[in-house]
Structure formats: structure tokens, C-alpha cells
HPt domain-containing protein
Amino acid sequence: MIDGVDPQIIQDLGRELNSPQLALRFLTDFLAMLPPRFTRIQTAVAAQDREDAMDAVLSLKITAAMTGASEIEASCLALQASIKNEDFAVAQVQTRQLGDIVARLNQAARPFSTM
């Protein structure tokens, strides 16, 4: 599968949906939307827009959990706490760290996206 994504989560989702293909499509969509979702977080944190940053982080955190991207989920959880506390200096650092994780996952997913 893809380094950074728990294959068991995708298999479980496929069973829950009664469609492994639908679960793989969900993963593919998650990976395709990852760069724009990260950009939205980055922009909102830079603007110190608490509402938009929180909305973007929660959205990414939930879909990361659903796809088994636990490192992204954990990073979003930490970022969520900083945004909630309006600690945007820390949130900036955490956003850069999240960007590194997103870049690694995108790199790992490249062969998968050409299938």
C-alpha cells in the first residue's frame, strides 16, 4: 500500500462500505485533495484566521483518520490545540511540520496515483 497510510483502515472501510473499490476511491480522493487542503491550512494560519484554520484542520484530521493517515491526524490534533488557544506562533511551526508530513505522503503515494 502507501507508506503513511494504514492499509487495515482502508480494508476495514471497504468492508463497512461493502465495496473495496469505494474505499480505494476515498483514499485516492484524499490524496488528491491533500495539497489544496494543506494550502488552506497554511493560508489560514498565516492570516491568523482562527475560524477558517480550525475548519480546515478539523476537515483534514477527520479524513486522515478515516484513511489511516495517523501521522497527519496526530499533527492536525496538535495544530488544532494551538489554533484553539490562538497560539499562532506555535501553529506556524506546526503547520511547517504538517507540510513535511504531507510532502512525504505525497511522495510515497506517487506510484499509487499512476495506477
Observations:
- The mean pLDDT is 92.
